[in-house]
Specification:
The complex is a heterodimer of chains A (about 190) and B (about 190). Chain A is mainly alpha-helical and about 190 residues long. Chain A contains eleven helices and no strands. Chain B is mostly helical. The chains are: A mainly alpha (about 190), B mainly alpha (about 190). Chains A and B meet through helix 2, helix 3, helix 8, helix 9 and helix 11 of A and helix 1, helix 3 and helix 4 of B. The structure holds zinc ion (ZN).
Chain lengths: ~190, ~190
C-alpha cells in the first residue's frame, strides 16, 4: 500500500515535482473517463484532462485538503469541461445559416435526432441494447449529464457530487432522478 | 409508473445514500410494490449498462496518460520560467545600476585628478600652508571654505558647527592622499620631495 493521495499531494505541494506524477497515474484514467463522457470526442477529452492536470499543478497550494484529492481534481475538470461546452456553443453559433437552423432544432430538443432514431429502433424491438448509452448521455442537458456521469461512471457519493458541482446535496438528488428518467425515456422511447 | 410516492427515494436507495432505517423501510416496500420493484430493476440495469459501456469505450491508453504527464511538465517549466523572469530582470537592473555608478565615479575621479594636476603644474610656487585653496580642485575648495567659514547664521557655539567640522575633516581625510590631517591645521603640511 503506497502513500495516500493526501500524503502525495503534500509532497507535491512542498516542491516534489515527481510526486505530482503519481497523482496523474492514479487519477488520469478516471478523469479521462469523465471527460470523454462529457465531451464530443477523444481529442477534446485529452485536452480537458491535460488542462486539468496543468491547472491542478499550478494551483497545488490552493487545495485545502478538506475534500479528497479526487474530488478536487474532478471539480477542476468539470470547470474546464464547462468552458469547452461554452466554446463549442459559440463555435456552433458561428456556422452557416442552414446549419444554424438545425442547431435551433437541436437546442429546443437536445438529442432530438438521436431520440428519433431510437424510437425507430425501438419500434423494431431491438434498439435498446444496441444503442450507445454513452452517446445518449452526451445528449442530456449539461446539468443532468454531469450528475449522471459523476454518479454512474465516477461512482462519487451525493455529497462529493455536490462538492464538485458546487450545488446542495438535494439538487444532486433531483438532477439524478430527472436525468435518469430522461435517459430511460431516450433509450426506450417512452 | 409514477403512482407510488416511494419512487422519489428509489434513486437514493439504489445509490445506497439513505440512512439505515429508511433503507430498511424502502427494502420492505420494494418487496411489496410491483411498480417500485420494476423501477428499481430498470435503474440497476441502466447502471450496469453504463458501467459496461464505460469499461469498453472510455479507457485511457498509455499515450493519453503520457499526454497528461507532458502537460504537467510543461506547466512546471512555465511556472519556473515565470518565477525566474522577475529575478533575472531585477539582477539585470542592479548590474546596470552598478555599472553606471562605476562609470560615473570613474569619470568624476579622473576629472578631479586632472584638475588637481593642472593646478599643481600651474602653481609651482604654491604656498606651503598658505592659501591652500589655490592648488586644490573646486570640490576641495568648497570643503575648505565650509570649514574655514561656517555658513552664516551658524556660529561656533551652534550645535551644528562641530558636526560640520567633523564632516569636513572626514572628507579631507578621505580625499587628500598626501600627508593626512593634523589637529589644529586644515591638513598636515605636504611632504617636500
Ligand atoms: Zn412503490
Amino acid at each position: 500500500m503506497g502513500a495516500s493521495d493526501l500524503e502525495v499531494w503534500q509532497a507535491a505541494a512542498s516542491g516534489d515535482h515527481a510526486a505530482f506524477h503519481v497523482l496523474v497515474d492514479r487519477h488520469g484514467p478516471h478523469l479521462f473517463r469523465v471527460a470523454l463522457s462529457l465531451s464530443s470526442g477523444r481529442a477534446d477529452a485529452e485536452d480537458i484532462c491535460q488542462e486539468t492536470f496543468a491547472a491542478a499543478f499550478l494551483g497545488l497550494k490552493s487545495f485545502d485538503g478538506r475534500a479528497s484529492v479526487r474530488t478536487w481534481l474532478t471539480s477542476i475538470l468539470m470547470r474546464r469541461a464547462a468552458k469547452t461546452w461554452k466554446k463549442d456553443r459559440h463555435a456552433r453559433r458561428a456556422i452557416s445559416l442552414d446549419r444554424r437552423a438545425d442547431d435551433d432544432v437541436e437546442r429546443e430538443n437536445p438529442g432530438g435526432a438521436l431520440a428519433d432514431r431510437l424510437k425507430v429502433d425501438a419500434a423494431t424491438g431491438a434498439a435498446d441494447q444496441r444503442m450507445d448509452v454513452l452517446e445518449v448521455i452526451r445528449t442530456l442537458p449539461p446539468e443532468f449529464r454531469a450528475a449522471i456521469v459523476l454518479r454512474e461512471i465516477e461512482g462519487l457519493s451525493y455529497q462529493e457530487i455536490a462538492d464538485v458541482l458546487g450545488v446542495p446535496r438535494g439538487t444532486v438528488e433531483s438532477r439524478l432522478y430527472r436525468g435518469r428518467a430522461e435517459l430511460r425515456r431516450k433509450l426506450t422511447g417512452y | 409508473m409514477s403512482e407510488c410516492n416511494f419512487q422519489l427515494l428509489l434513486g437514493a436507495y439504489h445509490d445506497r445514500e439513505l440512512d439505515a432505517a429508511v433503507d430498511r423501510r424502502i427494502a420492505r416496500h420494494v418487496g411489496e410494490c410491483f411498480s417500485c420493484a420494476t423501477a428499481l430493476r430498470g435503474m440497476r440495469e441502466l447502471s450496469a449498462r453504463i458501467t459496461t459501456a464505460a469499461a469498453m469505450e472510455l479507457e485511457a491508453d498509455a499515450a493519453v496518460i503520457a499526454g497528461m504527464h507532458r502537460a504537467v511538465d510543461r506547466a512546471a517549466r512555465d511556472e519556473s520560467a515565470a518565477v525566474d523572469r522577475p529575478l533575472l530582470r531585477m539582477a539585470g537592473l542592479l548590474s546596470a545600476l552598478a555599472a553606471s555608478v562605476l562609470i560615473i565615479s570613474g569619470v568624476w575621479l579622473l576629472d578631479s585628478r586632472g584638475d588637481a594636476r593642472l593646478a599643481n603644474g600651474a602653481g609651482a610656487a604654491a604656498p606651503r600652508g598658505g592659501d591652500v585653496t589655490a592648488i586644490t580642485p573646486d570640490w576641495e575648495r568648497v570643503a575648505i571654505t565650509l570649514r574655514a567659514q561656517p555658513r552664516p547664521g551658524i556660529g561656533d557655539d551652534s550645535p551644528f558647527a562641530p558636526r560640520y567640522a567633523e564632516a569636513i575633516h572626514w572628507m579631507l581625510d578621505g580625499l587628500i592622499p598626501a600627508g593626512g590631517r593634523s589637529e589644529g591645521k586644515p591638513w598636515a603640511e605636504p611632504k617636500s620631495f
